[in-house]
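Tokens for chain A. Residues wanted.
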């Protein structure tokens, strides 16, 4: 689904969201109240400029509109693989974006992520995975690393990883696997405004991903190990 169709379904034809190249931003009205929308489109690679532009919208919302909800629309191929961005410190720019989202949450803004097309690698980690919760459309594509790249990093045979991906969501891409692992809280289908309304009203402000993953069978040990570490601290 393209971003304009999604925005129209959520907020109506006069949704107030604009696209400046790959950068989405604007203020929508939802259930009679303003809501900040920020994100990306066109499978955007997140470089320094795009990361800082998104961070600016989040900080402006925190400074000028205390408590206003923020919706992150996510469609990215990951970080920009370009020498210029590396030299300018893309790692710091993306970390800054993540910190701004975390600041908004700490200041009482409800932050909801929605993967409506594609979410890969660092572009997803520093946006949707830092929100109060991340949701996705059923047709979305989510992965942090392709199996060939995973094989190079782990030094395991691609055939072994392919086999593991059939039974273990940790090794497999796909939105259903991220739901099973708890990284995606749920899928939005049918009544999209109703799904957003439910998310704004009932998404927990604490991080429940490890517990969700344990309950869904996608990450069986993360919550238990984290609790053991806390108990030993």
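Reply:
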């Amino acid at each position: 689904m393209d971003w304009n169709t999604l925005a129209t379904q959520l907020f109506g034809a006069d949704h107030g969201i604009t696209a400046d190249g790959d950068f989405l931003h604007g203020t929508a009205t939802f259930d009679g109240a303003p809501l900040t929308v920020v994100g990306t489109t066109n499978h955007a690679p997140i470089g320094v400029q795009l990361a800082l532009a998104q961070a600016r919208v989040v900080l402006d919302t925190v400074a000028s509109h205390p408590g206003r909800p923020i919706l992150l629309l996510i469609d990215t191929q990951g970080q920009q693989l370009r020498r210029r961005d590396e030299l300018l410190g893309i790692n710091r720019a993306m970390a800054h974006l993540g910190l701004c989202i975390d600041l908004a949450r700490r200041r009482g803004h409800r932050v909801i992520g929605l993967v409506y097309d594609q979410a890969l690698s660092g572009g997803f980690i520093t946006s949707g995975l830092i929100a109060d919760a991340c949701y996705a459309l059923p047709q979305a594509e989510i992965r942090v690393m392709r199996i060939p790249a995973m094989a190079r990093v782990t030094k395991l045979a691609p055939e072994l990883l392919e086999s593991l991906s059939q039974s273990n969501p940790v090794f497999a891409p796909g939105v259903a696997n991220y739901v099973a692992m708890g990284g995606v809280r749920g899928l939005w289908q049918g009544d999209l405004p109703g799904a957003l309304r439910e998310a704004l009203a009932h998404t927990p402000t604490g991080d429940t991903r490890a517990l969700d993953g344990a309950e869904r069978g996608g990450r069986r040990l993360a919550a238990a190990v984290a609790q053991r570490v806390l108990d030993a601290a």
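The CA atoms of residues 55 and 96 lie 7 Å apart. The domain at 3-204 is CATH 3.90.226.10 (2-enoyl-CoA Hydratase; Chain A, domain 1).
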